[in-house]
Each structure stands twice: as structure tokens, then as C-alpha cells.
């Protein structure tokens, strides 16, 4: 990464004599740390490629381009990157390409903005790995995001519509009579559809819990706080949610709790309509009443 920041490509020669780009951290044969670094050219040859007619967000180019394996001069392995050409007719295997460097280099693979067609008569630059800056890159920040599109099943859709009405809906197995919430659509024990809809109370019993003391990125609540399984009255599987309105260290198994809902105008088709559970003042449930639901 230091070489990329300085506008050079560095490979690693491993014990089998192969110059690999990017250099591996460890030799694939001896498993020893790679120490023989070799400068390679910023020009190379397209080994294989595929066309991207509709680029997606965060790809190297915002217009159609090719993903290609490019073997840089002086390397024995190819590196995959984008090649900026006008159409899929403008690229072919064996084509000579060169690096187009990013305007601002920070020591990351994105320092290579993309590859572009190169003049075959042009001589590739040479570079020694020893020519790099003395101040090495010691870390790379790589933002990652994932977008999910979740398709709720018919049973889950009924559950979420119920949440929008302030109701907690489960389904009962017609064979074992167990009530599942959120509904699963089928009983995992008997393998039959759970067709009977059951509306559950907003009160229940804490079966198990943990006190979260470790902060992490994106955390909405300042630790310590309690995440617990709540067995709603009338249900046969526990419901995971937060316990608040009590000191975290006072939460206990068997504690009776009730749901605390958001203001009505904020309800949507989401389980987040329930802000948390809190003690409802009832005596603790006897262990025998929930021991089969742990």
C-alpha cells in the first residue's frame, strides 16, 4: 500500500520464484513471511475480462466498463481491476493497458483509479521496491455497507400488520398446541402449518438475559443495559427484547414485565413499536412455570 501511495506497484517474490501482485503476507509454500519485494511496471496485459453494462454504487466507474485480470509487466500473477474503455468492442484478451492513478493517493487499492488502453510501443516504466517512501502505510480504512431487501412471509406480514395496530400476534400449532411468536408458518416439531392466529398479551416473564457492558459501533443505548428473552403470557417461545425501567443489575430470571409502546402516531409495521419491556409490579414467576422454555 505504501508503493501505491507513492505511485508504484510492488509485488512479492515467493520461494517458488513467482512474483505475485499484490504481494501475499505469507509465502504459500513455506508459510514464512514475505520479505522479497519487487517493483513491477504500471503497464500490463489483459488476461481475461468481463463487461459491466450497468455499474452499481461504489464501483470504480459510473459508466459501463470491464472488470479484467491484468498481468503487469514483471509480475507472474494477474490483478483484477476496472478497465475504462468505451464499449465491449474496445477490449480484448492480450490488450495492453496501463494504470490510471487516482488524483489523490492515500495508500489503498483505490489509488489505482482504473486501467486504460496503453500504446503497445510505449516502454513500461521500471521501478525498484527500494525506491519507496521511508514512511510506510500501516493501516487501511475500508468502509463497508450492505443493503438488505427483506421479503416477509405471509405469517410474518400478519405479525407486522398486527404490530402496526398495537397487537402482538402469534400462531398455534394444531397438533402440539404450542404458540409461536413471531409466527413461523410451520411448527418445527410437527412439521404442519400453524394456521390458528393467537393474540398475545403485552406482559410476560424474563426467562434468560444478559447485561451488555461492551460498547460497539452503531449502538443506540449506552451500556450497561439488558437484553432478555421474554416469554409472553400464552406463548411457548420467548421473545428477545430490551429490559429498561430498572437498574440492569436488578433484572432477574422470572421477573414479570410488560411492553412499553411508542406513542401511537409513531407506530409502523415494525417490532420497534415496542420500545422495551419494564417491570409490571407482579411477583416473580415460579421457575417451574418457565423452565421448559429456556
What would the average pLDDT be, to the nearest integer? 90
Major beta sheet summary: 5 strands, antiparallel
Number of strand segments: 16
Write out the strand line-up for the largest beta sheet, numbering strands in chain order.
Answer: 6-5-4-7-8
Question: What is the H-and-E element order?
Answer: HEEEEEEEEHEEEEEEEE
Write the layout of secondary structure elements.
Layout: H1 2-5, E1 9-13, E2 19-20, E3 37-40, E4 43-52, E5 65-72, E6 79-83, E7 96-101, E8 112-117, H2 154-164, E9 168-172, E10 179-180, E11 196-200, E12 203-212, E13 225-232, E14 239-243, E15 256-261, E16 274-279
Antiparallel strand pairs: 1-2, 1-3, 4-5, 4-7, 5-6, 7-8, 9-10, 9-11, 12-13, 12-15, 13-14, 15-16
Key structural traits:
mainly beta, five-stranded antiparallel sheet, 5% helix, 32% strand, elongated
Descriptive report:
The protein is mainly β and 294 residues long. Helices cover 5% and strands 32% of the residues. It is built from two helices and 16 strands. The strands form four sheets. It has a five-stranded antiparallel sheet, with no helix packed on it. A hairpin with a 6-residue loop joins β13 and β14. The two termini are 50 Å apart. The mean pLDDT is 90.
Concise description?
The chain is mainly beta and 294 residues long. Helices cover 5% and strands 32% of the residues.
Amino acid at each position: 500500500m505504501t508503493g501505491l501511495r507513492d505511485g508504484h506497484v510492488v509485488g512479492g517474490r515467493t520461494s517458488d520464484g513467482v512474483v505475485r501482485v499484490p504481494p501475499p503476507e505469507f509465502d504459500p509454500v513455506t508459510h514464512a513471511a514475505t520479505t522479497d519485494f519487487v517493483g513491477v511496471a504500471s503497464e500490463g496485459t489483459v488476461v481475461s475480462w468481463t463487461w459491466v453494462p450497468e455499474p452499481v454504487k461504489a464501483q470504480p466507474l459510473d459508466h459501463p466498463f470491464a472488470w479484467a485480470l491484468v498481468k503487469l509487466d514483471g509480475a507472474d500473477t494477474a490483478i483484477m481491476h476496472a478497465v475504462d474503455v468505451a464499449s465491449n468492442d474496445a477490449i480484448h484478451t492480450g490488450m495492453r493497458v496501463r494504470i490510471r492513478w487516482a488524483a489523490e493517493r492515500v495508500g489503498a487499492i483505490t489509488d489505482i483509479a482504473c486501467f486504460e488502453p496503453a500504446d503497445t510501443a510505449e516502454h513500461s516504466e521500471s521501478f525498484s521496491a527500494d525506491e519507496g517512501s521511508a514512511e510506510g502505510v500501516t493501516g487501511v480504512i475500508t468502509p463497508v455497507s450492505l443493503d438488505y431487501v427483506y421479503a416477509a412471509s405471509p405469517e410474518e406480514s400478519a405479525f407486522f400488520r398486527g404490530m402496526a395496530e398495537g397487537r402482538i400476534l402469534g400462531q398455534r400449532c394444531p397438533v402440539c398446541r404450542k404458540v409461536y411468536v413471531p409466527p413461523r408458518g410451520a411448527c418445527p416439531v410437527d412439521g404442519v402449518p400453524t394456521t390458528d392466529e393467537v393474540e398475545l398479551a403485552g406482559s410476560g416473564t424474563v426467562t434468560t438475559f444478559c447485561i451488555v457492558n461492551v460498547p460497539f459501533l452503531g449502538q443506540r443505548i449506552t451500556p450497561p443495559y439488558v437484553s432478555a428473552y421474554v416469554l409472553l403470557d400464552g406463548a411457548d417461545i420467548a421473545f428477545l427484547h430490551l429490559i429498561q425501567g430498572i437498574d440492569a443489575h436488578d433484572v432477574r430470571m422470572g421477573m414479570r414485565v410488560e411492553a412499553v409502546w411508542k406513542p401511537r402516531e409513531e407506530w409502523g409495521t415494525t417490532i420497534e413499536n415496542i420500545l422495551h419491556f419494564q417491570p409490571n409490579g407482579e411477583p416473580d414467576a415460579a421457575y417451574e412455570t418457565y423452565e421448559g422454555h429456556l
